[in-house]
Structure formats: C-alpha cells, structure tokens
Write a structure and sequence with these properties.
It is a single chain. The relative contact order is 0.13. Strand 6 and strand 7 form a beta hairpin. The longest helix is centred in the C-terminal third of the chain and has 12 residues. It is built from three helices and 24 strands. The protein has a single domain, classed as Beta-galactosidase, Chain A, domain 5 (Distorted Sandwich), CATH 2.70.98. It is mostly beta strands.
C-alpha cells in the first residue's frame, strides 16, 4: 500500500468519482450527490486516521477506530465497469461481543422522480425477498443511482429509509465477536436513462445467478462478508473436480477469475492485461516439462 491520492476519477461511461478522505463521494457527476456513501457506526461518523491505496491506485484503504472497533473502508473505483465497490470491515479488538448499528447514508443533489427495486418495481419502503438493491430514477440531468446492498439469501440485509426522494439511509445490524471481523459489501453506480424497463438488466451486470460478478474482495475478507453469501468466486457454492482446483488457486492468490491474465505482485499488487511469452518451463516432483504458453 502507498499513501492515498484523492484525485478525481472518470469512469468508462464518463461519470465522475470524487472520493474524499473518509471514503464518501462528494458530488459525482452533475451534482449527483451532496455527500454519498457516508459511513456511521453506532451514531459516530467514520473518519479515517490512516489513508492508503493500492499501488495501482484502483482501491482506497482507509482505516480508523469508530465506536470502539477498528473500521476499514476499501473503495475500489472500477473505471472499466463504471461502478464503485465498497467493503466496510469491522474488527472487534476488545474482549466483549460488539453489537453494531452501521448506517450508510447518501444524499442526492436533488430529489429523484422515482425509486425502483432491483426488479424494476416501485419501491414500497422495504426490500422484497428477492431484491438486492434499489435504483433512483432522475428527473433531470443528474444521473440515476444504483445501490446494490445485499444478496437475497444473506442473513444480514439492511433496513432502507428514503426521505424526500433525496436522502437514502441503509441501516445494517451486525454482531462482531471478540477477535473477529465482520464485513459488509455494497456497490454504487451512476447511470443515465435507466427506468423500470431497464432496472433489472442494470443490476444483472453486477449480480447474477445468486452471486456478485467480479467483486474483487481480498481473500482474507471473503469469509467475513455478512450481507452476501461469499465463496471463492462469489456467492457460496460447492465446486468440485478441476473447477475446485482452479477456484482454490484463485482464492490462494487472491485473484478474481475473468477474461484477463493477472500478474500477482506481493500481497496487494494485481496487474490485469494480456500476458505473452515463448514458453514455460515447469518443474515438479515428477520432472521438468516445457510447455507452449498458450497451453
């Protein structure tokens, strides 16, 4: 990790991400937010004492102590997919079980025209059994906002409050045993022209088949996630045979499977791209073999 540089980022769809030193989004694009993704724990707003980022600049790692627990916010601004992935990790370093009320509050730059569920239905004040989030429908030039907040089968799902079509409050109740960590994962995206007919398709770009798609959650945190049922590749499953070997290796190396090659550098360094070379020499207990790289 290196010291964080909080410079503005623009994603592949042209949306701006101006993440501040506490991990909130100041404005976004076209006054989308007036303070988005503000974290509070036990009524205390999070403030980072340590502000770092991965060496490639993709992910902020902000940590501090709030309400007696160690809190770490990991914010990955995925410019290619035009989404921000948040991990809120709560480590109980004390001797007693901590009952935490975690609030993630977002205020838009102005009131939206409508609030929809992830299925495209009008939001009625509570997430349905199959809902994974909500969507704001903009009435002007401000972007619509997708909030992806929990898996349908997770034990921890937020209480959602919407005030005046402008303020969105997601409240999670979690229990953290002494010496343990509990994490919450949520995603937010800015979009144009999304409505009831296209809402479900938007969410499917990030959550499909009961699993998050490419959430890039560090290996040491995957089994701590409370609001999605996490496994090596997303939501929990029971892979077997060759697939299990591949998934176990991906988990060991802290790599999300995808269409790109990944160069692993130390604990945090992950470079994605296309790898080429003439060939590979592999030596095992059974001897040495030379392979064509494409194989």
């Amino acid at each position: 990790l290196v010291p964080a540089n909080f410079s503005q980022k623009t994603d592949s769809m042209g949306f701006r991400w101006d993440v501040n030193q506490s991990g909130a989004v100041n404005d976004g694009s076209n006054d989308c937010f007036d303070g988005g993704l503000v974290l509070s724990v036990g009524g205390n707003q999070f403030g980072a004492q340590n502000r770092m980022m991965t060496f490639d600049g993709r992910e902020y790692v902000l940590s501090g102590t709030t309400a007696g627990v160690k809190v770490t916010r990991r914010i990955l601004v995925d410019l290619k997919r035009a989404v921000a992935r948040y991990i809120e990790a709560f480590e109980n370093t004390g001797n007693a079980t901590a009952q935490l009320t975690v609030v993630i509050r977002s205020q838009l730059g102005g009131s939206c025209a409508q609030v929809l569920t992830s299925a495209g239905a009008v939001f009625q004040g509570k997430l349905g059994a199959k809902d994974v989030g909500i969507l704001t429908v903009s009435s002007g030039n401000r972007p619509c906002v997708m909030f992806l907040v929990a898996g349908p089968r997770s034990k921890v799902r937020p209480v959602v409050a919407v005030k005046g079509g402008r303020t969105f409050i997601f409240t999670y109740f979690i229990t953290v045993k002494p010496g343990k960590t509990v994490s919450l994962v949520h995603l937010v995206a800015q979009r144009k022209g999304i409505g009831a007919a296209t809402a479900a398709e938007l969410f499917k770009g990030f959550f499909r088949g009961r699993r998050l798609l490419t959430p890039e959650i560090p290996r040491h945190l995957r089994r701590t996630v409370a609001n999605f049922r996490m496994g090596p590749g997303g939501e929990r499953g029971e892979p077997c045979g060759g697939l299990k070997v591949v998934l176990d290796l991906a988990e060991q190396m802290d790599v999300e499977r995808g269409t790109s090659d990944v160069l692993v550098i130390g604990e945090e360094g992950r470079l994605k791209g296309t790898a080429t070379c003439g060939g590979l020499a592999v030596e095992t207990a059974y001897g040495r073999a030379t392979l064509d790289f494409k194989e």
